[in-house]
User: Which sequence fits this backbone?
């Protein structure tokens, strides 16, 4: 009797399985057709870091304190600045991120008092060479203007 | 040239074109089907709805180098794909697509198809053996034991069916199922067929899947355990021909199921005309089901496959044979 029972339940479960897949067959497609369409990343998505814009001046908010450079465990960040006539504090001249070593840990973002850096939402990161991943974030900020 | 010769030539060209076209587009159907069962789109870039994809695949396969690795048996290795494809194409000869649309109306058509169906397993075995590759040999051993196990219930159910139809002529079998859906062998409500035919149909369909090496019985390829099984060492068109043979076998299996159980070219309702369209609709419905099954069930363990055949399918088909014989004797 157990033999027939097994056959019966087995056969039934096979048909149940077929029923499930055929229902999925007629449901709409869920995949994103990537190069043709993209989705906007969620608010907490962590891309590589970028400089944030100072809405008053239109420039960056960096005070060249160098905290991010010190905080980075992988030494990805290079910050350089200079004194300028008539400007209080230092002016940022170089902000280079070596993304090849970045682990997206966020230490830099956390250590920045004036919130001058933040994660970008950029994930289209294909490039022909290693050097393509050393980003000049200052230039990037200007290009985005 | 006499008419008979022209007719045969036309059928030869037609059959080869039909087989090749089906092999190519079944790959497309499979990929599209797989995609939609998983709620993807599938091929869509090459041509509208990806319809030119098989062409692109074909060109790719043909331009690839035909590698013959060191240590293989050069003759077996080369003839194996052909040994898989030729029997499948030969079987098309006697398939009645329509009332008068068969290359040859052979009285022993069913027997001929089964004879050729056993040869194509040999093609797989030779190819795998000739490859001198351990994965291929394991796959071949599995395929052979699987085919032996599943050929028995397949033939037993077919014998039961032949007892009811008392002919092996495929066209004749189809003719007997005329006059509406209730006359098809699947659900025949007359005294001349046993009430077990729906079960016979299930057994036949299962064994057909196993004979054509389709999932969940795809021991020949078993890509997750055996690289590519019997096809491991094949590249380029050698692999392409194997693939065509596999798909041609699926078409034969589906056509045979249509003929034996679903009334072939007979229309489902008496007032609709019989035509080749019905045959194609039924055949492709079965092929769709085959794809559907592939993307529903995972491949089972090999022991379970053999258990399914020896412990369930064979006893049931034997019972079906005996019941049918008794039924025919009594009524
Ligand atoms: S996220 Fe981490 S690793 Fe990347 S630059 Fe910032 S501190 Fe360095
Ligand atoms: S980005 Fe922030 S932490 Fe880094 S140097 Fe500028 S102000 Fe300092």
Assistant:
């Amino acid at each position: 009797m157990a033999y027939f029972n097994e056959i019966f339940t087995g056969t039934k479960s096979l048909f149940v399985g077929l029923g499930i897949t055929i229902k999925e067959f007629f449901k709409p497609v869920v995949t994103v057709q990537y190069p043709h369409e993209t989705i906007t990343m969620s608010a907490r998505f962590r891309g590589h870091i970028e400089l944030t814009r100072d809405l008053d001046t239109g420039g960056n908010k960096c005070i060249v304190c160098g905290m991010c450079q010190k905080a980075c465990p992988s030494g990805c960040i290079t910050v350089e600045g200079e004194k300028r006539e008539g400007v209080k504090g230092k002016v940022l001249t170089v902000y280079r991120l070596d993304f090849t070593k970045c682990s997206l840990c966020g230490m830099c973002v956390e250590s920045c008092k004036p919130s001058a850096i933040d994660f970008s939402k950029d994930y289209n990161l294909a490039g022909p060479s290693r050097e393509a991943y050393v980003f000049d974030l200052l230039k990037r900020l200007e290009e985005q203007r | 040239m006499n008419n008979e010769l022209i007719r045969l030539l036309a059928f030869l060209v037609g059959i080869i074109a039909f087989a090749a076209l089906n092999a190519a587009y079944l790959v497309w159907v499979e990929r599209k089907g797989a995609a939609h069962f998983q709620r993807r789109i599938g091929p869509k870039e090459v041509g509208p709805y990806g319809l030119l994809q098989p062409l692109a695949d074909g060109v790719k396969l043909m331009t690839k180098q035909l590698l013959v690795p060191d240590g293989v048996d050069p003759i077996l290795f080369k003839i194996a794909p052909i040994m898989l494809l030729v029997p499948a194409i030969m079987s098309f000869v006697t398939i009645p697509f329509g009332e008068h649309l068969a290359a040859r109306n052979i009285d022993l058509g069913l027997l001929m198809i089964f004879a050729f169906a056993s040869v194509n397993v040999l093609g797989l075995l030779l190819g795998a053996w000739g490859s001198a590759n351990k994965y291929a040999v394991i796959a071949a051993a599995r395929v052979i034991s699987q085919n032996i196990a599943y050929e028995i219930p397949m033939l037993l159910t077919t014998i039961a069916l032949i007892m009811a139809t008392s002919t092996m002529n495929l066209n004749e079998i189809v003719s007997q199922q005329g006059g509406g859906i209730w006359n098809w062998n699947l659900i025949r409500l007359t005294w001349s067929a046993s009430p077990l035919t729906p079960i016979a149909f299930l057994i036949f369909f299962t064994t057909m899947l196993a004979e054509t090496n389709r999932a969940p019985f795809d021991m020949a390829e078993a890509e997750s355990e055996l690289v590519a099984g019997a096809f491991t060492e094949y590249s380029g068109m050698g692999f392409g021909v194997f693939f065509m043979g596999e798909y041609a076998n699926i078409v034969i299996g589906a056509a045979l199921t249509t003929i034996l159980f679903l009334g072939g070219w007979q229309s489902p309702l008496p007032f609709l005309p019989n035509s080749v369209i019905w045959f194609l609709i039924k055949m492709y419905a079965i092929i769709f089901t085959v794809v559907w099954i592939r993307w529903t069930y995972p491949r089972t363990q090999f022991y379970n496959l053999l258990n399914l055949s020896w412990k369930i399918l064979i006893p049931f088909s034997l019972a079906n044979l005996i019941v049918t014989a008794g039924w025919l004797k009594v009524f």
